[in-house]
Amino acid sequence: MGFYKSFLNLSYSDIQYYRTEIEHTPECVVLLEKQLTNRVIRPQILLKDAEDYYIAKDTLRKTEYICFRNILMLDIDIKNSYIFTDNFMKNYFNKFDDMSFVIHKSLNGYHVFVVSRKFDYHTRESVQFMLQNFCDFYYCCFSYIRGYSVRISEKEGEKKPLYKNLGIYGNRSLVNKELMDLVNIVERY
User: Fold this and answer.
1) In a domain, 78, yes or no
2) Which residue, of 46, 84, 119, 148, has the greatest Cβ tally within 10 A?
3) Does residue 21 belong to any structural domain of this protein?
4) How far apart are alpha carbons 130 and 147 in whole angstroms?
5) How confident is the model at residue 80 (pLDDT cuts 50, 70, 90)?
6) Cβ within 8 Å of residue 43, ≥6 positions away
7) What order of strands is seen across the sheet that includes strand 100-106?
8) Does residue 65 form part of some domain?
9) What is the C-alpha radius of gyration for the chain, rounded to an integer number of angstroms?
10) Distance of CA 183 to the CA centre of its chain
């Protein structure tokens, strides 16, 4: 083995260590904010601006999305995972007795909205909750930068509806009507 190959092996193990030991922490999300902000700022057309959300069209990707200020959404990807099934998601989120959730199934995973309390998007508390509950790491980063965002228009080749509502789970008595009204905006598109 030559010197360069030993360097490659060493740097690969460093990357793996970084990914498993540092990447999935709120502190790392905060540190990545400045580096990732440029990936969020793109040409877009504002379609609606409200106190708790806005709707815009990304002109590069030609998709519309809604971005929420304080209705936390978990983006849970199912690629390469056999654990995330409809039954797993329903059972997992039904165990919470101090929160309630609306679960939407998407083409590539699940969107889980917390509908019992507000979470400010730009806090370590929100990031910690997301990371503890299977949320995609980069979705955590981008949510920390701009808010909880979900696409509401189809990509080329997709058909509506984009999401299937699997229902309300957790403590249903804690559902906040204002937050449910925001989730209903996603469902109307």
Assistant:
1) yes
2) 148
3) no
4) 13
5) low
6) 58, 59, 60
7) 73-77, 109-114, 100-106, 164-170
8) yes
9) 18
10) 14
Residue 8: inside a domain, yes or no? no
Q: Where are the alpha helices (DSSP H) in the chain?
A: 3-21, 26-40, 86-94, 124-132, 137-146, 177-188
What integer is the mean pLDDT of 112-129?
Answer: 96
**Taking the chain, what is the end-to-end CA distance rounded to the nearest angstrom?**
57
For the chain, give the longest Cα–Cα distance: 64
Residue 68 φ/ψ, nearest 5 degrees: -100, 145
Q: Which residues share a beta bridge with 66?
A: 55, 150
How far apart CA 40 and CA 42 sit, in angstroms, is: 6
Matching residue, tokens 């228009």: 153
Lowest-pLDDT choice from 22-26, 32-36, 39-43, 90-94: 22-26
Instruction: Give residue 42's domain range.
Output: 27-188
User: What SS3 class is residue 76?
Assistant: strand
- 2: pLDDT strictly greater than 90: no
Rounded Cα–Cα distance for residues 70 and 114 (Å): 10
Buried/exposed code over 86-105 (b: 16+ C-beta within 10 A; e: otherwise): eeebeebbbebeebbbbbbb
Tell me the pLDDT band of 4, cut-offs 50, 70 and 90. very low
Structural domains counted in the chain: 1
